[in-house]
Specification:
6-stranded antiparallel barrel
Length: about 270
């Protein structure tokens, strides 16, 4: 059981939390590790007012006919997060269901947590994030028509509208792009295109995601892609001319090729 929206995003959190996965990604990962069914609860303020006892008795036991409950050591639930491990133990004894509590998961002595991983991603430290995720960090996006600026620089790009929350800093990344029937390495620029002359009121304010896949000529408009981020090559910067930008993109492509050479298939 998980929530369609993180409770903190519903309960008036001032700053965006930043989710590591979208719900479709999460469900695919669950399926991959052998979970056969997942209940995606539409968390809202009315749901947040349910008491811990009512959640267990009315939902888990009566509606789902629960026999065993597995939770993490720091699990809290119900209105005002008043439900805790001690209460669950008492409810398990009262109603006769099995309760299994998992301790903290550690890697190299460090407790793995979403907060830790978000911190690595926000700094562009992808190798560290991948170590604690157990997989490369990825984002999903749909390919849209752009202004054709990449092609004019000699590097045709696919412009992506990302479904994930933005956790990564601006910059140029070596990536693997995965779509229906193909998987190809590429280089991606995430940022505000400071070298390109702004156009329109929103120019320079909306982050763009531009993917270049070398030696690839298939039409991608309207396609859904999953982008696996391997390494941040450099931060985004403004160049004195389009020629200088084009030359740097060429170097970025060569650097990305070296990075992905040692990268295993997903």
């Amino acid at each position: 059981i998980t929530f369609a929206r993180h409770p903190q995003t519903v309960m008036g959190r001032k700053e965006p939390l930043g989710m590591i996965t979208t719900n479709p990604q999460k469900l695919r990962l669950f399926e991959k590790i052998g979970i056969r069914r997942t209940l995606l609860v539409p968390f809202n303020k009315n749901f947040s007012r349910i008491s811990p006892e009512a959640f267990v008795e009315d939902i888990l036991l009566k509606k789902l006919v629960m026999r065993e409950l597995c939770v993490g050591y720091d699990f809290a639930f119900g209105r005002d997060r008043k439900g805790n491990i001690e209460l669950l133990r008492a409810l398990a004894r009262r109603h006769g269901f099995r309760l299994k509590i998992f301790g903290p998961y550690r890697s190299a002595g460090t407790v793995v947590s979403s907060t830790l991983i978000r911190g690595f991603l926000s700094k562009g430290e992808l190798a560290k994030a991948a170590k604690f995720l157990g997989r490369p960090y990825s984002m999903e996006g749909s390919v849209e028509r752009g202004l054709g600026l990449g092609k004019s620089l000699g590097f045709a790009t696919a412009n992506l509208r990302m479904a994930n929350d933005c956790l990564l800093p601006e910059g140029v990344y070596a990536v693997m792009a995965k779509g229906a029937g193909f998987q190809r390495p590429g280089v991606l620029n995430a940022g505000y295109r400071p070298t390109i002359k702004p156009q329109g009121k929103k120019a320079g304010k909306t982050k763009t995601w531009e993917l270049h896949i070398w030696d690839f000529h298939k039409q991608l408009y309207g396609k859904q892609l999953e982008i696996f981020f391997i390494k941040r090559l450099r931060p985004e910067k403004k160049f004195p001319s389009l020629a200088a930008l084009s030359a740097q993109i060429g170097r970025d492509v060569e650097n990305a090729k070296q990075v992905v050479k040692a990268y295993k298939a997903l």
